[in-house]
Amino acid sequence: MKQTSQLGAHAHNFPRGRAAELPKETLLKMYRDMVEQRRFEEATGRAYGLGKIMGFCHLYIGQEAISVGAAAALRPSDVMMSAYRIHAQAMARGVPPQAIMDELFGKATGCVQGLGGSMHIFDIAKGFWGGWGLVGQQVPTAAGVAFAQKYQSTSNITMVFFGDGAVHQGAIHETFNLASVWGLPIVFVVENNQYGMGTALSRVSSLEPLHEMADAYKIRHYEFNGMDLLESYDAFADAVDYAREHSRPVYLEAHCSRFRGHSMSDPGKYRTKDQLEEEKAHDPIPGFAAFLVDCGVTTHEALEAIDETAKAGMKLILERAEAAPWPDPELISKYVLVSP
Amino acid sequence: MKQTSQLGAHAHNFPRGRAAELPKETLLKMYRDMVEQRRFEEATGRAYGLGKIMGFCHLYIGQEAISVGAAAALRPSDVMMSAYRIHAQAMARGVPPQAIMDELFGKATGCVQGLGGSMHIFDIAKGFWGGWGLVGQQVPTAAGVAFAQKYQSTSNITMVFFGDGAVHQGAIHETFNLASVWGLPIVFVVENNQYGMGTALSRVSSLEPLHEMADAYKIRHYEFNGMDLLESYDAFADAVDYAREHSRPVYLEAHCSRFRGHSMSDPGKYRTKDQLEEEKAHDPIPGFAAFLVDCGVTTHEALEAIDETAKAGMKLILERAEAAPWPDPELISKYVLVSP
Amino acid sequence: MAQLLFRDALNQAMSEEMERDSRVYLVGEEVAQYDGAYKVSQGMLARFGEKRVIDTPIAELGFVAVAVGSALGGLRPIIEVMTYNFAILSLDAIINTAAKAHQMTAGQLSCPIVLRGATGAGGALAAQHSQSLESQYTHIPGLICLSPSTPADAKGLLKSAIRDPNPVIFFEHEALYSAKGEVPDGEHLVPIGKGDIKREGSDVTIIAWSRQMKQLIEQADAWSEELGLDIELVDPRTLRPLDMELILASVKKTGRVVIVEEGFQFNHVGAEIAYRIQRDGFDLLDAPVERVTSIDVPMPYSPALEKLVLPNADRIKAAIRAVCYK
Amino acid sequence: MAQLLFRDALNQAMSEEMERDSRVYLVGEEVAQYDGAYKVSQGMLARFGEKRVIDTPIAELGFVAVAVGSALGGLRPIIEVMTYNFAILSLDAIINTAAKAHQMTAGQLSCPIVLRGATGAGGALAAQHSQSLESQYTHIPGLICLSPSTPADAKGLLKSAIRDPNPVIFFEHEALYSAKGEVPDGEHLVPIGKGDIKREGSDVTIIAWSRQMKQLIEQADAWSEELGLDIELVDPRTLRPLDMELILASVKKTGRVVIVEEGFQFNHVGAEIAYRIQRDGFDLLDAPVERVTSIDVPMPYSPALEKLVLPNADRIKAAIRAVCYK
Ligand SMILES: Cc1ncc(C[n+]2csc(CCOP(=O)(O)OP(=O)(O)O)c2C)c(N)n1
Ligand SMILES: Cc1ncc(C[n+]2csc(CCOP(=O)(O)OP(=O)(O)O)c2C)c(N)n1
Ligand SMILES: [Mg+2]
Ligand SMILES: [Mg+2]
After folding, report:
1. In terms of CB atoms within 10 Å, which end of chain B has fewer, N or C?
2. Is residue D85 located within the same domain as residue D209?
3. Could you read off the pLDDT of C260-275 as tens digits, one per residue?
4. d(Cα C94, Cα C115) in Å, to the nearest integer?
5. Which of D69, D92, D112 sits opposite B143 (nearest CB)?
6. Quick one: which H or E segment has residue C226?
7. Under the phi-then-psi rule, with left for phi > 0, alpha for psi from -120 to 50, and beta for the rest, what region is D49?
């Protein structure tokens, strides 16, 4: 298994330093986004514990540098698609947290009116295309969206996320070949948090490092430290530009760590406490906070205030979700087929 | 597309020269096997034209150096599995040609009593395990047989054939990973005849050369000239020994050419006449004949006699197949479930 | 009216719709350079170019799922699967993506694909290439399923399918591609969800579709005379949603029903039709609904056996006699 | 008799059979180190070791097909699919390999696998994780399909399945794993192909299985009293082949039938049962067979909607009244 102490030490073959050109406001917004995602997920965890949220529920805590770095590199007209660990990714893309929380509560005001729940968040207008529950399923689907972008001569691209657990699904290999042969403008991102449910990657995989499998398909690929927001932004910015400019796929491996169990029902016994503590030492939020203060972008106090605002915001969001109306029974059959 | 003029010029990273140690009788038997396969397929083509054989029917003409080289490297207790272009492969493994032809005629005396036809030849006692019609399907299935061989602590291995058209099927990628992680004693063989039906490999594939995709899975791999019997034997002998000794997968790419259409109903318009002629210049049978004569193993006249015997044999085989009885209607339901 | 082969009627439908709507494209194994494994797309590459007539590698899950994604992205793919036996590999993209995308997004996305290709027993193709797996699709809410029996229905239904905003699964019997029939000139659309009486009769209703219906059309006059029973032939054409109104009207007239279908019998489409007839037409029935299916086994190769496994004249006539107590 | 959880009954069945036969092994996602996604295989890695309790990568076609191949090679795999929603990806290995290998080889090979895992709506799991796709398997000749409703049946049927020389598909309702019930001590086998009367009654036959049967067992006394109708509960347990003898005997007694099943309705198992009842029991029926299924839509997430989509007390009681003309 990849040691988490390696999280900061990867080979890079993408240009670094573009994050340094980001304006101060953007850096602060990125910090705020990470914090809000963290607080949102904590609130979600509590609401789940109280039985307000049902079904399967997967928290993103620990991986926020990836969602935020990715979203910062995309244009509004680009498409982002993912699996089921997506509350934070949807937020990064601009989906209102209230619409997400209402969805988790199964309410009519949710972003898909209560039809989807935690795993199936969609907001097409915001460029967030879900929200898919079968491991690997979103990958060829996203390539299809990229196909449509190219067919329609847009200059948009598609970015699709999947986990280290998904990389052995045949569908992904079929898709890599098609994306390469057809020259699709797509960024494939594997979030390698080292576990698929309770299974450590190395126990079931011969692919190491993951991103090198792209060699066979003549697809550009590299890895980066997904716990470092600036490195994350650099990696995504390069990949997005490349896909857009060349209408070619790129494959990124983001090394990262999830600090919670696979889902709310996973006690996470497959990791020792020590191991988890070691992973948490790489928490992207304090790391980025220190950077911002060190560079004089802001002060500790200002960052504290951001956090307090986020916490207060979540309280309100939970209250509103609680008060929101249940969906109308007519919804059951409303969207099975497109009405003529 | 790979030029056929390259057929004789590949990089090799397997030990050469083991074929040189084969006794004279074995070399002659290998020649006879190739010739019998060729004559069998020609007879099959004629019978198909006369409506004696129905359904889909795929001839192996041109690829005989692969089936014969492979079979010579296997032990009787090993397993060979393949797709649907298999008459010759079954013969190489020792399945009686009469039982195969009877099967093609749909007769009760066929190797699967008329249930299978051209695509589904099986003779488990001879170590020939079919005979599967979905492109790629046999690959994980064969890995399962290798799994059973290992589980039961036999020293047997499994060899599985598939075409260049099959390499993009996700199932094959899933299998490569499993075979590597579980250390299965299996030899994967892609017969790269450059076409899947009418589609040239390079038009739909980013994998070039094919065998290098095994790198990602940490699987030993190499390519060889599948039109050269001695090189074929060398390649298989090494792979079989390696799989048996290390209980590890190997992936071989056999460069070859089929001289007929994909199936009996394919006019083959996707190849020019010139291209086909060029490919036929690499015919493995005259090539090996010349070698045998040059080395003084035998004479032209003796080889001619082998051919005449084979031709006469096929005439008899067709007559017997024609005269064989149709299956009994009771067969229809006899093997749907295992009788208690 | 022109006489057309079934495959050419399909070709016309696709070509006309591709002229009409630039979002429509054709994708599948061998559809472009090879003109289609069954020559349905003959000439379409030459006419529409590489952008819109696209060969794929053999990767049924991958290319079907990519096409499904492209429909979510605003295109209208016609996806040719060489046969539905191979499309088993694509089912995740159809069941879990295409059929559910509209509902899962509360209407934000829709998935206007047409999945089409060969089904049924094409002739001595043995166990893996002779299946009729329609029920894998008719079972799924969110899908529309069509199965024409004549060139005219093939053309008219395929055009409707391509225009439909929903995922449509279109079944073409392998043994029908070379069948000939009259096809109306000019714009010809057949509505989805509407069955068709292929022969009027008063004594017994036979419900069938696809190749089985074609064979019944050819035999019905002779059998009506031979059995002294006036046969009505009802072709649902759309397998999901079923035109129960038409079916029940026929049952009302005859009181006797035989369903003929080629697939494995256990919970195939005929079971659903029979269930609905007995539920909604219990008092109309003078005899239990009978069905004739293939014998419930993996198809044997030998032509000597295949003809016994498929629905045949003897078994169908016996079923007609049974429901008429003759 | 011991009180056992459904999941523990399954665990006992597997463990006993693994003790008995060294060819039996368990393979699937999370079955070993994690003790199973639903804890069905709790403790089995510790007991049987890594050779016989094997974690796989997430690659449903690959690992199921490899296990199928291992059965052809002489082993007896128990293959756990985390849920049948994911097993859609494995269907080629089941339909085109496992179900056909014996016939395609004229008996030279056989394929003694047990495919088992969760099915049904587990509770607010939304469209992709709440399906009951039994008909994808019951449709296929060469397969045996089992669906127990109690811990005792679960144990006894699973043991029979593991010993059976054929491919067996075993459905475990996700909401049943924590259900408790009495399980006979000692060797306990339930025969394949035999249904069970879960409650004797004289007025109306309800046919159901899996979770729906469990709920009916809990309600039947109260409903019988409330409706003034003595309910008979028939649990086929084996979905293929069906125990039509038992079913028809019950119909003979009551003349009235309601089928309750959780899946999508169109050509699901209930349609097949209804077809056979009307065909073989036409004169026994006093009313058309009714069925209660899930509403035919992809499952919505919101608990407020899910409970309306699943078969519920109101709809089942209405169906009972309807067949009894009450
Ligand atoms: C096809 C399929 N197989 C299995 C599952 C069950 N499952 C859900 S998430 C998961 C683990 C995926 O791990 P990974 O891809 O690494 O993503 P992560 O949870 O780490 O974000 C599994 C096995 C599923 N949803 N779909
Ligand atoms: C899953 C599946 N898809 C498509 C087909 C139709 N088909 C049969 S053979 C073939 C081409 C295979 O080519 P290749 O693997 O190169 O083998 P070759 O015929 O050259 O020996 C195709 C597309 C099939 N049988 N199964
Ligand atoms: Mg992971
Ligand atoms: Mg080929």
Report:
1. C
2. no
3. 999 999 999 999 999 9
4. 9
5. D69
6. helix C210-227
7. left
Residue entry with tokens 């939304």:
D126
Which DSSP string do the residues of B141-210 spell out, in sequence order? HHHHHHHHHHHTT----EEEEEEGGGTT-HHHHHHHHHHHHHT--EEEEEEE-SEETTEEHHHH---SSG
Contact A80, A93 (CB under 8 A): yes
pLDDT of amino acid C129: 98
Instruction: Summarize pLDDT for D212-226 with one digit per residue, the tens.
Output: 999 999 999 999 999
The tokens of A171 are what? Answer: 């569908």
**Pairwise CA distance, residues C262 & C307, whole Å:** 12
Interface of A with D (CB under 8 A): 54-56, 103, 106-107, 114-117, 119-120, 132-136, 165-166, 168-170, 196-199, 203-205, 270, 326-327, 329, 331-333, 336
Question: Domain span at residue C13?
Answer: 2-183
pTM: 0.98
Say if residue A152's pLDDT is above 60: yes
User: A333 lies in a domain?
Assistant: no
Quick: pLDDT tens for B128-139: 999 999 999 999
Tell me the mean pLDDT in the region B326-339: 97
Asked if D84 and D207 sit in the same domain, the reply is no
Give CA–CA dist B69/B228, Å, rounded.
9
Strands D231-235 and D204-207: parallel
Enter the ipTM. Answer: 0.98
Q: CA-nearest residue of chain D to B337?
A: D142
Instruction: Report pLDDT for A12.
Output: 56
Contact D209, D173 (CB under 8 A): no
Residue in the structure block whose two tokens are 């092994």:
D25
Active-site residue, C129 included: yes
Which single residue is written with the structure tokens 């006419």? C47
Strands C53-55 and C196-199: unpaired
DSSP C155-175: HHHHHHHHH-SS-EEEEEEGG
Q: D25 and D87 share a domain? A: yes
Structure tokens, B254: 């056999």
The rounded distance, in Å, linking the Cα atoms of B7 and B193 is 10
Regions of chain C where pLDDT drops below 70 = none
User: Are the beta carbons of C69 and A143 closer than 8 angstroms?
Assistant: yes
Partners of C196 in the β-ladder: C235
Domain, as residue range, for B99: 24-321
Among C251, D89, C97, D10, smallest CA distance to A129 is for C97
- pLDDT exceeds 80 at position A3: no
Cβ-defined contact of D86 to A203 (cutoff 8 Å): no
b/e burial code for range A260-273 (CB count within 10 A of at least 16 → b): bbbbbebeeebbee
Distance D86 CA to ligand 1 centre (A): 10
Could you say which DSSP state residue B227 is in? T
Encoding tokens for residue C320? 């007609």
Tokens matching residue B282? 């690499």
Q: Is the Cβ–Cβ distance between B249 and B150 less than 8 Å?
A: no
Over the stretch B185-237, which tens digit does the pLDDT of each residue have?
999 999 999 999 999 999 999 999 999 999 999 999 999 999 999 999 999 99
pLDDT of residue A17: 86
Q: How confident is the model at residue A13 (pLDDT cuts 50, 70, 90)?
A: confident
Do D175 and D200 have their domain in common?
Answer: no
| Centroid of ligand 3 to alpha carbon of A207 (angstroms) | 14
Instruction: Check pocket membership of C31 for ligand 2, CB cut-off 6 A.
Output: no
- Total domains present in chain A: 1
Whether residue A13 is contained in a domain is answered as no
pLDDT in tens, C223-260: 999 999 999 999 999 999 999 999 999 999 999 999 99
The answer as to whether C85 is a domain residue is yes
Q: Is C231 helix (H, G, I), strand (E, B) or coil?
A: strand
Q: Is C11 helix (H, G, I), strand (E, B) or coil?
A: helix
Would you call C60 a catalytic residue per the annotation?
A: yes
Over the stretch C204-218, which tens digit does the pLDDT of each residue have? Answer: 999 999 999 999 999
